[in-house]
Amino acid sequence: MTLATPLPTRSGPRPRTTPSNPHTQLDQQPADPSIREQLAARLFALPGVVERPSAISVPGARALTLRQPGPRSPMFMVGKEFAHLHPAPDFSLHAALPRELMVEAIEAGWAEPHPIARLGLIPETIVMLYAPRDENELDVVAGLVTATQALLVP
What we know:
Region (Disordered): 1-32
Helix content: 25-40%
Number of helices: 4
CATH topology: Aspartate Aminotransferase, domain 1
Organism: Knoellia koreensis
Pfam family, one: Luciferase
Domain Luciferase: 79-147
Oligomer: single chain
InterPro entries: Luciferase, Luciferase_dom
């Protein structure tokens, strides 16, 4: 997925989420837990990405960090962490997206702004990406994170 590819609209209503930290998805998790593991496998296989415990999320969150120092940019949450996967029962993820893609993802129903980003305490481009419910949604969510990774890894 590239920034030039229009996102499909996510079907159905947005999931319920908490309005503050920890920012958690409360419903619409995947019925098949293998969807979550497929997403993790794809994301942690991206070039230049290393899995680490998140430095900013709940215990058990798995962070996507850069192996090599990348450019200092608002596309990082903390250090070189640009996304993290939340543990069960949540299964959503937070990611720093390029501004244009962030707007498109929110408008198409795939994401919502992080409540702390709304307060200006973290970069405004950090969003919650809703947990993919099936293989088609898995492709979209993985594509959104991959678009960010492609900008960060030389």
